[in-house]
């Protein structure tokens, strides 16, 4: 009698295991939710890279230029990562990406023209909105999406680093800081909402 050995193959995660909670009535399906996460994160990282590009066009040769360049380089790594995920998982980009290209650059350049502190105030507002967004996503993802969750948490830590850089560069001393901060943060939240859906 010949002995046979069984090879263990882990089962693919059930759709509900890829999210931390079971879907509620009216929720998107799991695949659609994951696609939405990747689409909005790619759009956000694209917009952030454009903001820093706009700031560098004004402040690139100033003493703070190297700091902004460091943050832009990290955003480009984030963007490249989500670009690769989009191809691998066949997720379409937001239809509004051409608008983000112009609007992100314009926001970066405009705040930089207001001065170094205003540019940093922009960074603080945007990165705090992104932090909350990434935290919510990470909480929703279950063990079946451990790699995506780890990526989001790593990038979230780097976005918080950018926020801290902005604060260290006296963002809060910008003239009219509460108004500028509130407008940019609200605008970032609105852009996130739109990019998830369009």
TrEMBL record:
Entry cofactors: Fe cation
Entry keyword Cell membrane: yes
Domain of life: Bacteria
Lineage: Bacteria, Pseudomonadati, Pseudomonadota, Alphaproteobacteria, Rhodospirillales
Major location category of this protein: membrane
Pathway assigned in UniProt: Cofactor biosynthesis; ubiquinone biosynthesis
Protein name: 3-demethoxyubiquinol 3-hydroxylase
Co-factor binding comment: Binds 2 iron ions per subunit.
Record's signal peptide: none
Subcellular compartments: Cell membrane
Entry-linked InterPro entries: Ferritin-like, Ferritin-like_SF, Ubq_synth_Coq7
Residues engaged in binding Fe cation 2: 75, 127, 159, 162
Recorded catalytic activity of this chain's protein: a 5-methoxy-2-methyl-3-(all-trans-polyprenyl)benzene-1,4-diol + AH2 + O2 = a 3-demethylubiquinol + A + H2O
Keyword RNA-binding: no
């Amino acid at each position: 009698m010949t002995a046979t050995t069984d090879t263990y193959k882990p089962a693919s995660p059930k759709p509900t295991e890829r999210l931390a909670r079971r879907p509620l009535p009216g929720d998107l399906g799991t695949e659609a939710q994951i696609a939405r996460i990747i689409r909005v994160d790619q759009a956000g990282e694209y917009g952030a890279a454009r903001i820093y590009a706009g700031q560098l066009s004004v402040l690139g040769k100033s003493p703070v230029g190297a700091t902004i360049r460091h943050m832009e380089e990290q955003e480009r790594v984030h963007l490249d990562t989500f670009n690769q995920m989009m191809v691998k998982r066949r997720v379409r980009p937001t239809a509004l990406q051409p608008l983000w290209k112009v609007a992100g650059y314009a926001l970066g350049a405009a705040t930089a023209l207001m001065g170094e502190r205003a540019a940093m105030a922009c960074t603080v507002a945007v990165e705090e909105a992104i932090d909350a967004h990434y935290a919510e996503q990470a909480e929703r993802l279950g063990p079946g999406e451990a790699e995506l969750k780890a990526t989001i948490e790593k990038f979230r830590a780097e976005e918080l680093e950018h926020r801290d850089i902005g604060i260290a560069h006296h963002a809060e001393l910008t003239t009219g800081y509460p108004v500028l901060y509130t407008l940019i943060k609200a605008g970032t939240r609105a852009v996130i909402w739109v990019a998830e859906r369009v």
